[in-house]
What does this fold into?
Amino acid sequence: MASIDEILAGGDAGLVVLAETSAEVFQDCTPDLVRKLTEKEYNVVIITINNPSTILKKSYIKSGIDVEKVFFIDSITKYALGGLPEDKDESMYFINQPGSLTDIGIELNKSFARLGGQKVCVIIDSINTMLIYTPSQTLIKFIHFLSNKLRLLHYLGVYICINGSIDPLLTNQLKSLSDEFIKL
It folds into this structure.
């Protein structure tokens, strides 16, 4: 099992990584991952389901992360607020509801068009929360679609999940759609 540092050192494009973490360190692992990616000149597109993009961006700035290379596909803010936040900016794209995988796919395609020819990493934060809003088989179909799209575009993908909290059959399906399995 490789580490994220080994994967980034290898410079492998087109890899899909299933990253498992514990619930205790979950909140800290994404900022650490984003920092490592931006330091390696990746543009990071985060599909955020857990936390609103405005809160994440403020946290990243406070942690010294270069947010010029971070873009958010935010699927929770509009759903929770019933509209857009006042402090939104051009790095944030909002989806009506977390279970709208089609809208997420559309925003990803727009992001890919804007970032064409650059190093890109897509992070799903997190698979566990997506399962609250999306049936597992529908989510697996989306992950299959996204994984192959990332490989074809030579982009890196990191799907974060909390260990022990997903059905083992689903975990095995996610592993089969990934090129690497790591622990954060």
